[in-house]
Amino acid sequence: MNGRRIVFVGAGGAGLTAAFTLARRAPDAQITVFSKDPVVAYSQCGMPFVLDRKILDFNKLVIYQPPVFKDLGLDVRTSTAIEEIDLDGRAVTTEKGERVEYDRLVIATGSRPFVPPVPGVHLPGVHTLLTLEDGKALYERLKDALNVVIIGGGPIGLETAPAFLDAGAKLTIIERVPQLMPSALDPEMAAIVQAHLEQKGARVITGRGVDSINGTARVESVTCAGEVIPADLVLLSAGIRPNTDLAKQASIDLGVTGGIVVDEYFRVRRNGKVLDDVLAAGDCAEVTGLITGKPVIYAVGSVANRQAKYVADNLLGKKTPYPPVLCPAVCVIGDLHVGNVGLTTHACEQAGITPLTFSARGATRARYYPGGKTVDIKLLSDGDRLVGGQIIGEEGVGGRINVLSLAIGKGMSPADLAGAETCYAPPVSPLIDPLTYAAEMLALKVARAKKSQ
Amino acid sequence: MNGRRIVFVGAGGAGLTAAFTLARRAPDAQITVFSKDPVVAYSQCGMPFVLDRKILDFNKLVIYQPPVFKDLGLDVRTSTAIEEIDLDGRAVTTEKGERVEYDRLVIATGSRPFVPPVPGVHLPGVHTLLTLEDGKALYERLKDALNVVIIGGGPIGLETAPAFLDAGAKLTIIERVPQLMPSALDPEMAAIVQAHLEQKGARVITGRGVDSINGTARVESVTCAGEVIPADLVLLSAGIRPNTDLAKQASIDLGVTGGIVVDEYFRVRRNGKVLDDVLAAGDCAEVTGLITGKPVIYAVGSVANRQAKYVADNLLGKKTPYPPVLCPAVCVIGDLHVGNVGLTTHACEQAGITPLTFSARGATRARYYPGGKTVDIKLLSDGDRLVGGQIIGEEGVGGRINVLSLAIGKGMSPADLAGAETCYAPPVSPLIDPLTYAAEMLALKVARAKKSQ
After folding, report:
1. Cα B184 vs. chain centroid, distance in angstroms?
2. What mean pLDDT value characterizes chain B?
3. Calpha distance B421→A401 (Å, rounded)
């Protein structure tokens, strides 16, 4: 490999995993990982389920303890923010003033929850959920909360919603757009999620923004479209923003999404010129969307983790191009598994695609076999290819999203997916899988549309 | 459509489903369906779970009642065996002597359990499990059975095994080959199934045949490799044979598998000459294996059901070629879901393929999330393509088999599968899906093997 000194700024899913992979494959590398956080190597995605007491302790989310880093020869510096990157001098400077030189630098500074510019948003009692500290702080407050407001209908807030309800709080969820999870779901699929949350006791307000968060010493209420909603705890879940301050300050190019522009080898640019010795990956960097070919930011653990392997390859001089990203995802909201992959109808329209769609409701087991669940499926096609899918149910969602991800990723048509054989046993699936049925119906619709053209 | 009078012989998954599809799409067709069985339109695959009392009543397995047939204009003649097919006269004759003419004939006579040529095999108390009557008879006997022997390690017998154990019987399973489920699993994967059954209390004997079934008025014991094993109930589960007597008698060509030879439009042949007006489908007919290109019989409900659509298309004059078959399958044996698709190592060797394989044990959820299960995965490749896979676990098997089925069906390599993005949420999956991991490792093995050539 070119140069032995590798510095990572950030120890999340992209940075730390890449550092681990590199350490295993290049034992002679001198790897330093800086994180502003006191604890690293934990699962952020698990936090809603600790809050909901499915998982008994935040410490269970910590995947590697510091001795593992030492064993691997990794120098992981926690609670150490980087203040400056000196691209010309090939060095970073810590907040403590230490200057550390590198041969290769990886910027993996991640993302942060978006804090909407609303009066009162910085009052005590207004939380975000990103770091383990955030999780622990929320857990402490959760016990005493009587009135909770979640601002934003994104997946992290909705995954956390049952924790508030189970703790006995009165919960209001406010989403500015007229539906929950607008970046993942079409409106009628989001309505299934909304109905589930309402059935569990939440009040859901969509299509109205928050005017202000109110209180003196701490939060007391939220004003939404003129209505004052009591709140002793507020959780912001209104999307994320990439952490790019450090990159921006070093004059590294940012893209239209606000994220760091990288090429397929994760190399950053300065004034349009590719820098061979500086990579960026994870939530802070743009990726290319598979269907649209356009830059996008997917702040999802599985994407970051997947990138880490490519980053390590490229640090080792093995030029492995990172392909465009589809980002299949699933989240668990109460009893519902909510999955999506590719484009929603809205995202299609933004990309100039008028999608043909088919929606089906099926079952996860033979109808005479007890315990089966309903599964709702919506598929989208641009006519030739499948371009997106959404699946919601109490079981059998993840596997079907992965089937769809493979099909969309390989450019298959609805007919291709309909033609794929599926397995059958009464306790495991219906004779005809609902995904197969939906694909068949969409294929017919596509064929009819082509005929009528 | 050519000719309005369509006769189906057999009302199982292929015949009745094709008749239903045809009736819906061609309301003017005059469709007659003959079945030797008194009840049709039920789920054979559900019977093990009625025996095990997961499903409370055999009647729940009946999917359509006779009034539905009438509503659709289908003339379904139950308890009416066909004695003869007159190909030249275009007619069938029932056992009651009625002659019914056809314009198009569909032979869907299904399969029957193989009855091994063992002394005593016809004694009362020796059962097979194919029809609803078989199921009910077994259910009645099950209550009083103290000592049960299952002859054959096929999936139907193994799915039924827990019913005997739960009823308190002492159970012995005898398989002549040195492993259970030899046509679906590699030996070490079958060992997982065997250990599960043993842990539930079954005795499993492999690699030894049955010498005789003994008794006077009814079965009393089974002799296996010289050992006399007490038995008041015996279940034969030693594979199936296609029902071809009627076809054979009409001089319709049979193939190397013993099944009826059909072309891609399900048309049979007489003395090598294709007959345009006679189709055969379901367990009685050969299909072409996707990987080997060779004829094979898959007596599986999902395959028969899938064929029905193509049969209906072809009866309607819409020539839709039926593609080669991969036959993904899953069965449920106690707590285990046991899935397979494509070729086993043994089947590879028979086809002249020396497979590269990788076996992985993974988890179905994030390791810190409660309730996750172990999943065992084995993948096989011929170097370029994935050619088979086996997955065993208490959950998450069916979805992954379907991913594999899509990948193998589309001729993907292990690297293609490893490159597919998968969704992630701690309660639904690990960060890296075990199937992705297995595919990655197999891709590495394939790359190394190519390099060393």
Report:
1. 10
2. 96
3. 10
pLDDT recorded at residue B1: 54
CA distance A247 to A106: 11
pLDDT in tens, A378-406: 999 999 999 999 999 999 999 999 999 99
What percent of chain B clears pLDDT 70, i.e. is strictly above it?
A: 99
What is the identity of the amino acid at B326?
L
Q: Please report, as a single letter, which amino acid is at residue A196.
A: H
The per-residue pLDDT for range B276-303, each reduced to its tens digit, is 999 999 999 999 999 999 999 999 999 9
Q: Which residue has the tokens 């009543």?
A: B57
Q: Does A443 touch chain B (CB under 8 A)?
A: no
Q: Where are the alpha helices (DSSP H) in B294-453?
A: 301-315, 345-350, 398-409, 414-418, 434-451
Report the pLDDT value the prediction gives residue A396, as an integer from 0 to 100. Answer: 96
Per-residue confidence (pLDDT) for residue B66, from 0 to 100: 84
- CB contacts, 8 Å: B431 with chain A: 43, 301-302, 305
- Both structure tokens of B112: 């029957």
Indicate yes or no: CB of A327 within 8 angstroms of CB of B54: no
Answer yes or no: are the C-beta atoms of A135 and A58 closer than 8 Å: yes
- How far CA A318 is from CA of A106, A310, A321, B158, B451, in Å, comes to 16, 9, 9, 49, 16
Residue B367 pLDDT > 80: yes
Q: Is pLDDT of A1 > 60?
A: no
Residues B321-329 have a mean pLDDT of 97
Phi/psi of residue B131, nearest 5 degrees: -95, 170
Mean per-residue pLDDT for B82-108? 97
Give the mean pLDDT of chain A. Answer: 96
pLDDT of residue A197: 98
- Do B425 and A398 lie within an 8 Å CB cutoff? yes
pLDDT at res. A453? 79
- Tell whether A236 is within 8 A of chain B (Cβ): no
A152, A175 in Cβ contact below 8 A? yes
Q: Compute the average pLDDT of residues A230-250.
A: 97
Give the integer Cα–Cα distance in Å for B178 and B190.
10
Cα separation, A286 vs A258, whole angstroms: 8
The pLDDT value given to residue A2: 53
In this model, does residue B72 exceed pLDDT 70?
yes
Tokens describing residue A268: 């950053």
Contact: A406, B409; criterion CB under 8 Å? no
Q: Which residues of chain B have a CB within 8 Å of the CB of A60?
A: 368
Distance CA B429, CA B422 (A): 9
> What are the structure tokens assigned to B256, written together?
């190397």
Return phi, psi of residue B61, to 5°: -80, -15
Specify which residues B148 forms β-bridges with.
B171, B233
Pairwise CA distance, residues B139 & A39, whole Å: 59
Q: Report the C-alpha gap between A178 and A188 in whole angstroms.
A: 11
A327 is catalytic: no
* Those residues with Cβ within 8 angstroms of residue A407's Cβ, 6 or more apart along the chain or in another chain: A386, A416, A417, A420, B406
Q: Are B164 and B148 in contact (CB under 8 A)?
A: yes
Per-residue pLDDT, averaged over A91-96, amounts to 97
CA distance B217 to B212: 15
Residue B217 distance to chain A (closest CA, Å): 37
Whether A225 shows a pLDDT value over 60: the answer reads yes
Look at residue B223 and give its three-state secondary structure: strand
Extract the tokens encoding B382.
């011929």
CA B173 – CA B319 distance, rounded (Å): 46
Report DSSP state, residue A449: H
Q: Which residues of B touch A417 (CB under 8 A)?
A: 406
| Candidate list A45, A224, A284, A327, residue with the active-site label | A45
Q: What is the pLDDT of residue B396?
A: 96
Domains of chain A, each with CATH number or no CATH? 5-112+241-315 (3.50.50.60), 126-238 (3.50.50.60), 335-446 (3.50.50.60)
